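Repro:
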Amino acid sequence: MPVVRGWWLAAGILGGQLADALIGDPSRGHPVAGFGWAASALEQRSYRDSRAAGAAHTAVLVGGLIGAGTLAQRRARGGWMLGSLTALATWAALGGTTLARTGSAMADLLDAGDLDGARALLPSLCGRDPAALDACGLARAACESVAENTSDAQVAPLFWAAVAGLPGVLAYRGINTLDAMIGHRSERYLRFGWAAARLDDVANYLPARVTGALAVGCAPLVGGSAAGAVRAWQRDAARHPSPNAGVPEATFAGALGVRLGGPTQYRHQLEIRPALGDGPGPGVADLRRAVRLSRTVQGGALLVALLISAVGVKRC
C-alpha cells in the first residue's frame, strides 16, 4: 500500500522531530556515538595514509548503514512499523534542539562574563581552539557554528529522510559523522579522510541551499533582513572554502546584519576565511538572534520535509 507508506513516512519524520524537541541528544547511549565507536574500531585496522584506504573505510561504513536501512524498510510490516523506524532514525540523526540549547548556553556564559565556561563549552559547537578566542571571537565562532549546523544537524537529516527514507537518513548521519571524525585537513587525515569529506560535500549540497532559502524567508520573522541575506549569499557564499558552509553562514550574516569570517584557528591549522556579510562582528545579542533564526529555519525545514514525504506517496 504505497499511499499508506508515504503518509507513515511523513508521520515518522514528524515523530522524530518531536522526539528531538523533547529529548535532544542524550549524554549517554546515543546511536551516533555507537556508530562513532564502530568507525574508530574499524579505523584501527583500515588506516593507511592514502585516499584509497580512506575511500574503502568510508564505503564500508556508509554502505553498511544503507544496507541496514534498506533491509529494515523492506521488511517493515505495515506503515506503523515504517513510521516507528523512521522516527527513531530521524531522532538519532537530528541535532537541532541541542544546537539551539548550546548556542543559548554560550550566550548566557558570555553575558555573565564567564570566558572560561564559554571556552569549555565551545567544543560542543565546533572544532576551533577556544584558548585563542576572546569574548568577541567566541561569539563569532558560536554564530558561525549555529548557522552551519542548522544545515548539517537539522535541515539535511530532514531532507534526506523525506527524499530517501530510512536508508537516506541513516546514510546522511553516517557521512556527516565520518566527516567530523576524519574529514579535516590534519596531517593524519589529509589523504585518509579525503573521501569522507568529499562525500559530505555531495550530501550537503542541496540541504545547504535549502537552508539558505529558508534563512532568507525566515529572516523577517526574527527582525532580520531578507534582502541582506540574499545579498550576502550572492556576493560572499562562494568565497568560503567549503562549497556548502558558505551558504548558511553568509545568509545568516546578511539576515542578522553582522560580519562573519576572518582568521579561524583550528587545533591543527590557522585558516584565513573571507568576510561574510556587512556590519560589525557579532556580539551576544546577535548570537541570541542567530539561535532564534536557527529555530525558525528548523521549523521551516520540517514543513518542507513533510511536504516532500507526503507528496512522494508513490514511493514504496
